[in-house]
Amino acid sequence: MIPPAHAALLAATLALLSGVNASKKSASANGYDAIICGQNGYSDGSGLSYSANAWNPDDNGFQCLSIINASSSTTSGFDATWKWPGDPDAVHSFPHVTFLSDDLPVTVSNISALRLAASWAYAPGSISTADDAGRLDGFDTNGLNDIGAKANIAFDMFMDMDKVKAASATAAKYEMMIWIGQVGNPYPLGFDSENATCYTQQLGSFNFTLYTGQNSRGTLVYSWVSPADQTSFDEDITPLLQYLWRNELVSADARIGLVEFGSEAYHSGNNVTFSAGDFDMNVWLGTPVKFELNPVADHCEAPESPAGPQGTGSSSSEKGMGLRAREAPMTGVIVMVVAIVSALASLG
Fold first, then answer.
1. Average pLDDT, stretch 27-36?
2. Residue 308 has what pLDDT?
3. Pairing of strands 41-43, 48-51
4. Which GO BP terms sit in this record (predicted)?
5. Distance of alpha carbon 61 from the chain centroid
6. In a 3-state reduction of DSSP, which class is residue 48?
7. Could you say which of 29, 47, 64, 336 would form a disulfide bridge with 73 (CB–CB 3.0 to 4.6 Å)?
8. Which pLDDT value is given to residue 59?
9. DSSP alpha helices (H): ranges in the chain?
10. How far apart (Å, rounded) are the C-alpha atoms in residues 65 and 8?
């Protein structure tokens, strides 16, 4: 008999085999509304949607995302359990929530405020029931480091002058990430230790550092990295946006069409769980408040687009998200089924 703690993973395997996106019956038994694996998604019109987004799986790994209170826009959350023992320098998945709003797409120079909020936790092992009181209370850095886990925690938004492309993670011209946590030692696209103090911007209590790069699809990627892990985030992120368009790194006419929050999962030889909740997004339109932008460090040149002299040209996606790829659906199913069955055997 399979232990109850593993029932969710088995249900996800059966769902994949039958072509169903989520297994609600088994999810309910564990306190979850739905369980999704592989590249599957889930939405019920609450103002949030969810994606497991294992877009670059390795043969011996797996990932499943269990959704809590999906119908609520205020108390919803998810637990994403994953294991990627393969290439530690490649992003294998991005389990995330997508914020849905009638205000999107919105022109960046017509935003007076854009508030984003989320809370998260990360720890080795698997969370099997949604009513675990401590699911958002812990960030076990020592335990994660002991097993060589590597991941980031980030907001991710996409922009383009065209409103249709702005809503697509694969078609948008610009991508802006806000890293609010790190596990192990991941690097943003365009990372260079020599310019780590060149381009910064105050947001809340922290000075975020900007790294720029261009992925192989041609997307211009701007990554703002917090100097400290922020397990609870609630900020108006307009200063980071203004830094980009007022310095002409992003067109002032670009529209934000897609906003997400999740974790880029690079590597772990054992199961780890990323838990998230307290999601919120508010957009206020109108003439923007002109924030004071941090000056460029004395030893650095003015910031330029990564397509220009400062940029890295066509950069590898091994550092930062860089590129989201899609594989043939059947391949993903086979890989996920084998991986989950293997995980069940090892855990049981």
1. 83
2. 62
3. antiparallel
4. polysaccharide catabolic process
5. 19
6. strand
7. 47
8. 86
9. 7-18, 24-29, 141-146, 163-166, 238-246, 329-347
10. 10
Q: Which residue has the higher pLDDT, 310 or 237?
A: 237
Among 213, 211, 214, 82, CA closest to 150: 82
Instruction: Let me know if 231 is exposed, middle or buried by CB neighbors in 10 A (0-12, 13-18, 19+).
Output: middle
Going by DSSP bridges, is the β-strand pair 206-214/232-236 parallel, antiparallel, or unpaired?
unpaired
Q: Return the CATH number of the domain spanning residue range 4-347.
A: 2.60.120.180
When pLDDT is cut at 50, 70 and 90, the band that residue 309 belongs to is very low
Indicate the burial class of 33 (C-beta count within 10 angstroms; 0-12, 13-18, 19 or more).
buried
Q: What is the DSSP string of 210-245?
A: EEEEE-TT--EEEEEE-SS--SEEEEE-HHHHHHHH
Residue keyed to tokens 């041609």: 218
CA distance 343 to 336: 10
